[in-house]
């Protein structure tokens, strides 16, 4: 389609609002990623075309390790700025919580680029600690062990201390302190201890219940005191070095953070008064991301910036420490979402299956139409901005008529098809007229929803965007090309799974939540690519294998010093073979059984020897295919 637009159309997808400077549109109308927020950036469409030449087809996950670097630097700088501004008496050290994105490349990259900022690691399970024990991290950085722990977990943390790592065992429940004391007595080693407190303050947003008195996590005030008493009795109080609080992820409202940090600082101060040499105050995660760009405390947004977060934490702790006359603690945050969210996006193809002009085609060659069909045809011809409400209601009535005639056996399938397509066209016209007339009613809102075009999209929500399905979290979705061509269609994205939940039907919008996405008409033979952005936190690792759709291939893309970009690493996606194995089927055993089916078919004369051999080869070859659609 020829476009009257020579330059990118601003605003429709809100890139400037949610992109945090990492996303843009170039003159070709292509989505661009700028890992350092400057320069020409990476043309995502060209990247996908290049990958296609290298036989990597969509869906593909693009990772931008340099965005991880930018975010690590931004977080560190924000805290440094706040520390200078408020003359805070101690430093800041971050840790990356592994559960947010446990992919090797992500964790290793964060520790590598975070080395100079002493970025550490937070682990919450034995498997995560197993990894953490062996990874290289700055000797000054922390290795924080959270989560419920058994003796085995705690023992592993002791090994970390023996290796010289700055490990902190954060006690979540009383039994862990007993376990610590036992292992300390037998080994003579004394790793740092932290206590996770339960605050009265709650967060806001989807994870509100992670905090507060009824939370699943943390020690009550009485339990904190009991831990302290036990440590005193054993003579281990000197090793109580951290207090930890985490009131939930994606705190949407800055006021909740201030309130929680205030309470946490008081708890810290009281421990200092009791002569516990607590050195670290760990404020947990929760640093929110503005997914929809609205800068509000709504669920997929946050009403503050990273700098404001750092300012509020530093200022609040500083104020309470002054007031209580205790030394300022080293601040620790476990900001996982903020470090990783921007660095990955999924690109895949989408196609609208509607066949345009169906009604016109049928109408011309269908003699002797029934009255319901003729009526619809006339409504379709005469509907206008002046009469659309009335004509739309007439069409509704004619549609009833159409189906009862069909039920009674008076209509052919062709007539029914024609009636359905005419009705569809009338609805589309009526909707257009209602917008033209600025007419708002429930009826036409329902109509708009019903008329959303279904774009069949080559991916699985359950694998690639699980939080959309589980908690209704919104993510920015947009085409990666034709961004200088006005999007004339209103659509939703339906995925490949045989599950009615497998669709994206709510979209980010600055003012509201949109139930439609502006998209372009698609044509056969020309791919139409869409990107789902901000998947780097929790999404690209938490997905499941619904319908046996597997991991998508990954390409890690970097910008070189000359401004040119290239693929640094390619990781293949799951194959059919991989996926059947996850369900407990042995691919070799399946092949064996397939062979015996073939032998039987040959025996019964259904297949010749040669065809059977060819089928066997084909079956074996298919095991290496991707689980997604191969549309070339
Ligand atoms: C999940 C979790 C985090 C990460 O929170 P974000 O909001 O992603 O930064 C930090 N600390 C603990 C204890 C967690 O459970």
Q: Write out the distinct hetero groups bound to the structure.
A: pyridoxal-5'-phosphate
Any idea how many domains? Answer: 4
Which of globular, elongated, flat, extended, rod-shaped describes the shape?
Answer: globular
CATH homologous superfamily title of the largest domain: Alanine racemase
Strand proportion, as a percent range, falls in 5-15%
Biggest sheet character: 10 strands, mixed
Low-pLDDT runs of 5+ residues are none
Quote the average pLDDT.
94
Summed up, the helix count is 22
Second CATH tier, the architecture of the largest domain: Alpha-Beta Barrel
Q: Care to count the β-strands?
A: 21
Write down the CATH class of the largest domain. Alpha Beta
Structural class comes to alpha/beta
What is the radius of gyration?
30 Å
Helix content: 40-55%
Oligomeric state, counting identical vs distinct chains:
single chain
The name CATH uses for the topology of the largest domain is TIM Barrel
Q: Cα distance, first to last residue? A: 22 Å
